[in-house]
Amino acid sequence: MTRAIELNPEFRRNLWLELTPQRLVAVPVVIALAAAVGWLSPGRTGAVGVAVFLLWGLLTVWGSRLAADVLVDEVAGHTWENQRMTALSPWAMTWGKLIGGTVVAWYGASWCVAVIAVAGAPPWGVVARPVLYGLLAQTLALLFSLLVLQLHDGAIRAHVSLAQLGALLLTFGVFEIASGGGALVTWYGLDLDRAGFGYASLAAAIAWATLGIWRLMRTEMQASSGPGCWFGFSLFAAVYAGGFSRIVDVPALILIEASEQRLVASVLVLLALTYVAAFLAPKRYAELRRVFELAWAGRWRAAWPLVPPWSGSLVLAVVLCIAFPATALGTARPFASTGSVALFLAACLLFTVRDLGLLLTLTLDADRGRGHVATLVYLGVLYGLLPALFGSMLGQDARSVLLPWPDDTPLLTLGAAALQAALALYLLRLRVARLRLAAG
């Protein structure tokens, strides 16, 4: 580890920038004064409470801000372009910025842990949660900052607060989910300790977020990459979400087996990830055209780095949708219930295709900020305003035309979804034709 630090100039540079003499002295002094105030009022418990509060604040709020800011000075000072061209590997750049950029927060956290230990509180139970959630918030903040950097062509100073806010909201959401429920959690029929399962889930989330940073860093440093990382994450998310039964509380799903319910959960998670990847990934006509040209020529290895990441999630969802009817074989449940849910999944898939066609039509080689906002507005109309209007005018059954809904009219939903998907793909075809003419 010591040799790795010595060989990583990015990490050493951040140490010099962050651990200034003023911070080295001021951080422990402030923490000691705050702990002393807590010790003087209720005693040791007060000191532990203050230290734990500071530990959460340092690692989640301040740490996520430092992680989100780690690229801002580079971009604003026009030094990021030079760093991208260095011989430093993407992985060294990743952990050099993630750990080095937040080192002062971890320095303060070490003093909080020292106060907790001196006060006699058991360190693991008190320290583990803020450390894991803080590390999650920091990795997500740096991940979102890199996404903002790619989506806004380097102008990230005005958007770095959004990256930190997104990281904090997502971390808080994970905390709320992990804190709810009883002492046990059921996953694939196994009753597991909720605390241990939560720690393992947090560790997995941190690992995947770090891999995401490394993947985006490879793109920034002009290294060849592909959708493999996102495909692996999509596969993991599908398997992870599939372990929970009743994740979608819909009456129609009560009539199918638990294994089928888990498959439904996996499909819905994959479709949700398809939306996420489609909105965040760059959408350039030249790259998509190159992918099709290389694939048509049979040069799959050359086409792989240009394949959009959302295609992996979509392909996995298609495979599971095709395999879903086979799960009813050999069960005592009526096949009609499985067929109804299969049509519902097919409708969800078609609506996803429609939305992808709409998104690509509006954002392909266009102003990506405006295109994304316009897509969100149109999706709000399609999934919110129009179903409410149709429902009030024609009754609740009319929602099947605009929403994937497991009800008594799955064929109506499927037909309407197919028509809308075909229309969106036709609009995308027109957009591609205009871009082809413009490119000559």
Structure described in brief:
The chain has 440 residues and is an all-alpha fold.
Defining key terms:
440 residues; mainly alpha; two-stranded antiparallel sheet
Detailed description of the structure:
By secondary structure, the chain is mainly α. The chain is built from 19 helices and two strands. The protein has two domains: 179 residues, no CATH class; 164 residues, no CATH class. It has a two-stranded antiparallel ribbon. The longest helix has 30 residues.
Provide the residue-averaged pLDDT: 83
How many domains, in number, for the residues? 2
Neighbour order of strands in the largest sheet: 1-2
> Structural class of the secondary structure composition?
mainly alpha
Question: Helix count?
Answer: 19
What is the alpha-carbon Rg in Å? 25 Å
* Range of helix content: over 70%
Q: How would the global form be characterised?
A: globular
Tally of extended strands? 2
- Characterize the biggest β-sheet: 2 strands, antiparallel
Percent of residues in β-strands: under 5%
**H/E element sequence:** HHHHHHHHHHEEHHHHHHHHH
Cα distance spanning the termini: 54 Å
Low confidence ranges:
none
Indicate the topology.
Layout: H1 2-6, H2 9-18, H3 21-40, H4 44-69, H5 72-76, H6 80-84, H7 90-100, H8 103-118, H9 123-151, H10 160-179, E1 184-187, E2 190-193, H11 194-220, H12 228-242, H13 258-280, H14 285-296, H15 300-303, H16 310-323, H17 335-363, H18 368-394, H19 410-439
Antiparallel strand pairs: 1-2
